[in-house]
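The following block was generated as part of the benchmark described in Methods. Ligand: DQA.
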Amino acid sequence: MATMTKTIYILNGPNLNLLGQREPEIYGSQTLGDVQSLCKTACESNGYTLEFLQTNIEGELVNHIQEARTKACGLIINPAAYTHTSIALYDALKTLTIPIIEVHISQPAARESFRQVSYVAQAATGTISGLGVNSYLLAITAVINKLDNA
Ligand code: DQA
């Protein structure tokens, strides 16, 4: 693994820019900036660089996933509502050979019926959900673990 890039991509989908303001009873009071700092510390203390991105636009998520093909050693994605709708994200994720962890702050399985399908899960190595922003930190551990044991 000598030439492997040490960059972990974390991608965030629509409305996650409003974390901390948006339905705090479901998503908590921490902002996306807070999540980014926690993730940066977790990556850097393990010798990895973090690329942390958010967009409300589905095609931009596809572009970032494609970028990750050459720039990332692991990808963590909270696709937000696109989890439940996007075949484009599924197809893009299927082009990757690196570990992919799907992350949710809430527990979609315990919510509305339209959240019961995840297209992303079908392309992911694993899913971590329902643990608040700690879901992101557990996903970083999962990616690093996968890479260490590859
Ligand atoms: C979410 C869960 C999705 O169902 C929802 O559309 C989101 C956030 C979560 O992190 O819990 O926007 O991905």
